[in-house]
Amino acid sequence: MSTIDATEVALRVGCGLNAVMLGAIVETVREVQTDYIRQTLSDFFAKLPAEAIARNQAGFNEGMKRIRSAEFSPKQASEQLATTALPEIGYMNAPLGGIIANPGNTVLKDNSASRKGIAPQLNRELCFNCGLCDMVCPDFCFVWDPNGPKLQGIDYQYCKGCQKCVVACPVDALTPVLEGSIPESDRHYHVFPEANRDAVRARWQNADWSKLASEISPEMRMLTLQTELLDHRSYIRPDLSYMKKPEVKE
Question: Which CATH number fits domain 112-186: 3.60.15.10, 3.90.800.10, 3.30.70.20, 3.40.50.1110?
Answer without folding.
Answer: 3.30.70.20
